């Protein structure tokens, strides 16, 4: 089911009006929040047998889709630093401060631009109640 969801997301991203050429990077994020990042310059992806083969910048890498939590396009370079899923402020822990940030974004009190995509906890490129619920469950050790 997870493979199907990731594949569906990839197809949906390519069908949406926004295209990869308006972003600088494509991130594949696994369940441990580790990011595999590719430049969108010359980006080419193919899907076969539950794997994505990505070619960018003259390098080719195969990603096992079953290990991916989500993928996203971004304009922010990954510094190689990884954060726990839900650690919106990047301080290394998932806590009430992260919940507060998400609520402020939802209320329009924070534009979210300072969080390098970490605010999209559930990976759907928007901040909503599902993100807050995930962070709370992570704080309680339920995810």
Question: Which features does this protein show?
Answer:
143 residues, alpha+beta, SH3 type barrels, three-stranded antiparallel sheet, 3 helices
Low-pLDDT sequence parts: 15-21
Mean pLDDT comes to: 80
CATH class of the largest domain: Mainly Beta
From the N-terminal CA to the C-terminal CA, the straight-line distance is 18 Å
Our count of domains comes out at 2
Number of helices: 3
Listing every helix as H and every strand as E from the N terminus to the C terminus, the arrangement reads HEEEEEEHH
* Shape, principal axes of CA atoms: globular
- Helix share of residues? 25-40%
Main sheet: strands, sense, barrel: 3 strands, antiparallel
Return the structural class: alpha+beta
Widest sheet, order of strands? 2-1-6
Percent strand: 15-25%
CATH topology tier name of the largest domain: SH3 type barrels
Rg computed from alpha carbons, rounded to a whole number of angstroms: 15 Å
CATH architecture of the largest domain: Roll
What is the count of β-strands? 6
């Amino acid at each position: 089911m997870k493979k199907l969801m990731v594949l569906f997301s990839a197809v949906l991203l390519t069908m949406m009006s926004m295209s990869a050429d308006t972003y600088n990077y494509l991130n594949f994020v696994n369940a441990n929040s580790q990011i595999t990042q590719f430049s969108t310059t010359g980006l080419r992806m193919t899907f076969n047998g539950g794997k994505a083969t990505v070619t960018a910048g003259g390098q080719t890498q195969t990603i096992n889709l079953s290990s991916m939590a989500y993928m996203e396009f971004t304009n922010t370079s990954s510094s190689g630093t990884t954060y726990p899923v839900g650690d919106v402020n990047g301080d290394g822990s998932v806590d009430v401060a992260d919940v507060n940030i998400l609520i402020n974004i939802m209320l329009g009190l924070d534009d979210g631009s300072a969080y390098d995509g970490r605010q999209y906890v559930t990976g759907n490129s928007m901040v909503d109640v599902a993100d807050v619920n995930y962070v709370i469950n992570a704080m309680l050790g339920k995810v």
